[in-house]
Write a structure and sequence with these properties.
mainly alpha
Length: about 180
């Protein structure tokens, strides 16, 4: 089973995280344009538009939630573990397995559970911005929160799988952190 299934699963999750992360990152220039337009309109012309403010928040949420798993995949996240670099490859694999199973997955499952409830309620009532000119369908961005944590959980499963493969003496060739574009 481990010979074919686990490496294929890890690679598929990695590919999904990378695709969603890169697509989400493409929204950064759009977000910057919205921010600049909002600032110019507000301070240059005295016209405040709540739609632009909410749009920049929503785009930011999509970028952050879409890139969480991508950053974890490429080991581009902040590590608190100051000893990590000193451990052997097998030691790092044990840390990934234990940390993923004991810390990351329970946290992600809990957040995703409550995020789903939040989305479902928002969808059921057709929630929109409380501002009269605000964006409609607030439940969409609440779904993005849920989906981002699900993707992070999947990437945690991939990291655990990668650690298991390393301990089994079958590390994936692409387990080294990759540079973000």
């Amino acid at each position: 089973m481990m010979d074919a299934f686990l490496p294929a699963l890890v690679r598929r999750i990695d590919a999904l995280s990378r695709a969603i992360g890169r697509a989400s990152a493409l929204l950064l220039p759009v977000m910057m344009l919205v921010v600049v337009a909002n600032v110019v309109m507000r301070y240059g012309f005295g016209i405040g538009m709540i739609e632009f403010e909410e749009l920049q928040w929503h785009i930011n949420a999509i970028v952050v939630m879409g890139c969480l798993a991508y950053a974890y995949r490429d080991d581009a996240h902040v590590r608190v573990d100051v000893l990590h670099a000193r451990f052997s490859e097998r030691g790092r694999a044990v840390i990934e397995i234990v940390g993923g199973a004991v810390l990351l997955l329970p946290f992600v499952i809990g957040i995703a559970y409550f995020a789903w409830d939040n989305f479902a309620y928002s969808f059921a009532i057709g929630e929109r911005s409380p501002m009269p000119s605000g964006l409609p369908a607030r439940y969409v961005i609440k779904f993005v929160l849920f989906a981002g944590f699900v993707l992070l959980g999947l990437q945690g499963i991939a990291a655990i799988g990668r650690g298991i493969l390393t301990l089994a003496g079958r590390p994936l060739a692409d387990t080294q952190p990759r540079e973000l574009p």
